[in-house]
Amino acid sequence: MVNAKSTKEKSQEEIEEEIDVWHQSSDFTKALKKSAGKVFDPKTRTMTGRPRVGRKFNVTFPELTIEKLKEAASKRGVGYQTMVRIIVSEKLKEYE
User: CATH assignment of 54-96?
Assistant: First the structure.
């Protein structure tokens, strides 16, 4: 029978014992090795082999600009944040 205690109710020893059981499970080990280097894609709810590359930073746009970005992105079938990356990449090429 499965132990129904929540994590908060378990002692440190019980938690470590449970971790050991999971790590000894061949299914867990296979899944862990299979997912190495992959990231979770929330849109498709699957693991992708494309780890995120780059750096995040924040930019503030007026609401009207965001609406225009969303319209343009919808026409291309991409998200508006992807559209921002596309526009920035295309414009940067003009400055090279």
Answer: 1.10.1220
Helix/strand/coil (H, E, C) string of the chain? CCCCCCHHHCCHHHHHHHHHHHHHCHHHHHHHHHHCCCEEECCCCEEECCCCCCCCCCCCCCHHHHHHHHHHHHHHCCCHHHHHHHHHHHHHHHCC
Tens of pLDDT, residue by residue over 27-85, are 666 666 666 666 666 676 666 665 566 778 899 999 999 999 999 999 989 999 989 99
- Look at the block and give the residue holding tokens 């965001």: 66
